[in-house]
Amino acid sequence: MENRKHTFDRMPLAARFFALPARFYSLVRPTPLPEPQLLLWNAELAAALNLDADPAAHDALAEYLAGNRLPANSQPLATVYCGHQFGVYVRQLGDGRAILIAETPDRDGVIQEIQLKGAGPTPYSRHADGRAVLRSSIREYLCSEAMFGLGIPTTRALSLVGSPQPVWRESVETAAVVARTAPTFVRFGHFEFYSHHDDHEGLRALAVWTIVNHYPECKEANNPYQALLEAVITRTASLMAQWQAVGFCHGVMNTDNMSILGLTIDYGPFGFLDGYDAGHICNHSDTAGRYAYNQQPQIGLWNLQALAQALLPLLDSKEEAIAALHQFQPQFEAAFAEQFRRKLGYADWQEADWEPLTHLFNLLQAGRTDWTVFWRALSDHAPYAEKGSIPAQLRDQVLDRKGFDAWFAQWQSRADRSDPAALRDRMRAANPKYILRNHLAEQAIRKARDEGDLSELQRLAECLRHPFDEQPQFDDYAGLPPNWANDLSVSCSS
């Protein structure tokens, strides 16, 4: 039977969080915003949530998405957690500007949480205003949906609402709210909070809740908590490999920004690689380079160690945790190999493939070759190259042409080029033509913020829904970044 479509004010609500101890959260209402305006509405996601995709079908939709009104029977709340920020333990953090307003089933029957980010202060705001600005909210909306289009696990954005209310950051900006969704926003830091506060009863309750709602396959294990840790390790290893494959840099991989479901969460100072630099630091605030692109897999493991430490009271022994953590590296390497097997168009991955792949990385590093443009050009042109010939569209991107000639000969000997069109299509499906480059986001932000023109924002959002498709109408988004893009920087305030 077809699911009935609901309006935002009358969506069916679940109440899973109230099965957790009351000390896990605080009931708090969003703080109203003046003159909210709906800037973006994700009709596709709305339909998946059994909501009417037509925004006009919802009464006063912007009021609900700003937090000025609440769905019927909503009990909004913010959760408490702690975590390691840039490697330093912070005893209490929490949802400082995010308020959960609904848990509702999607069309597959999976409960999805809906949070309003920027909806005002909570008990965990630590003297901050609980607001988000339009600039950072646009970036979060665009990137979460870009990652979804890339097939990478992520939270999603349902809407973006703006308001003329002034908010002070480096300068005065205007307020905005993103309604974002996920099966849960529980983080590694939630488990750390209970463990580091010696609340083992609360830790067990949270672990049981997580297993029941999100990892039911762990229930039958000899130790369900060990199985939970192992499952999170597997998902995190896969996520790290997917990030590396598309050149995504998170920028602030604190343990409180790590999803227990292996989702990409909390889009702040993120960035995608332009010219390839393994040590690229996308976060201007990260002066030590802790979260550089090439450090992300190891930081993923570091964060998993913090999670394992938190779960120790539920495990049979420390050795169990160590054994689980030892699974990360081989799982990451296998996931990484699978990503690049697909990017290179190989039928399988062989041990001998690691050496030429490393050689390719060195070639791209030496010339700061654009990561996305190179891989897409390889997909488009390499399948059709005659044996022993190299398309100029590829060769001219690499500084060391002789070195690239040798690499390309190896690639030709490994790839099945008997059907070039089929090989091209397989490689295109692993190598996006479009990513959310910083300068593209900046152009959309400036038009929306400075001119009140939403057309660039809407156009870019539409393009990023299908990043692997040719979409010739968006070819202007697929080129190399302009020189002025080198002057852009993002920080923890982004």
From TrEMBL:
<feature type="binding site">
    <location>
        <position position="266"/>
    </location>
    <ligand>
        <name>Mg(2+)</name>
    </ligand>
</feature>
<keyword id="KW-0460">Magnesium</keyword>
<dbReference type="GO" id="GO:0070733">
    <property type="term" value="F:AMPylase activity"/>
</dbReference>
<protein>
    <recommendedName>
        <fullName>Protein nucleotidyltransferase YdiU</fullName>
        <ecNumber>2.7.7.-</ecNumber>
        <ecNumber>2.7.7.108</ecNumber>
    </recommendedName>
</protein>
<keyword id="KW-0548">Nucleotidyltransferase</keyword>
<keyword id="KW-0067">ATP-binding</keyword>
<dbReference type="Pfam" id="PF02696">
    <property type="entry name" value="SelO"/>
</dbReference>
<feature type="binding site">
    <location>
        <position position="130"/>
    </location>
    <ligand>
        <name>ATP</name>
    </ligand>
</feature>
<feature type="active site" description="Proton acceptor">
    <location>
        <position position="256"/>
    </location>
</feature>
<comment type="similarity">
    <text>Belongs to the SELO family.</text>
</comment>
<dbReference type="GO" id="GO:0000287">
    <property type="term" value="F:magnesium ion binding"/>
</dbReference>
<feature type="binding site">
    <location>
        <position position="266"/>
    </location>
    <ligand>
        <name>ATP</name>
    </ligand>
</feature>
<keyword id="KW-0808">Transferase</keyword>
<keyword id="KW-0464">Manganese</keyword>
<dbReference type="GO" id="GO:0030145">
    <property type="term" value="F:manganese ion binding"/>
</dbReference>
<feature type="binding site">
    <location>
        <position position="94"/>
    </location>
    <ligand>
        <name>ATP</name>
    </ligand>
</feature>
<feature type="binding site">
    <location>
        <position position="257"/>
    </location>
    <ligand>
        <name>Mg(2+)</name>
    </ligand>
</feature>
<feature type="binding site">
    <location>
        <position position="97"/>
    </location>
    <ligand>
        <name>ATP</name>
    </ligand>
</feature>
<feature type="binding site">
    <location>
        <position position="180"/>
    </location>
    <ligand>
        <name>ATP</name>
    </ligand>
</feature>
<dbReference type="GO" id="GO:0005524">
    <property type="term" value="F:ATP binding"/>
</dbReference>
<comment type="function">
    <text>Nucleotidyltransferase involved in the post-translational modification of proteins. It can catalyze the addition of adenosine monophosphate (AMP) or uridine monophosphate (UMP) to a protein, resulting in modifications known as AMPylation and UMPylation.</text>
</comment>
<keyword id="KW-0547">Nucleotide-binding</keyword>
<feature type="binding site">
    <location>
        <position position="187"/>
    </location>
    <ligand>
        <name>ATP</name>
    </ligand>
</feature>
<feature type="binding site">
    <location>
        <position position="96"/>
    </location>
    <ligand>
        <name>ATP</name>
    </ligand>
</feature>
<feature type="binding site">
    <location>
        <position position="129"/>
    </location>
    <ligand>
        <name>ATP</name>
    </ligand>
</feature>
<keyword id="KW-0479">Metal-binding</keyword>
<feature type="binding site">
    <location>
        <position position="117"/>
    </location>
    <ligand>
        <name>ATP</name>
    </ligand>
</feature>
<dbReference type="InterPro" id="IPR003846">
    <property type="entry name" value="SelO"/>
</dbReference>
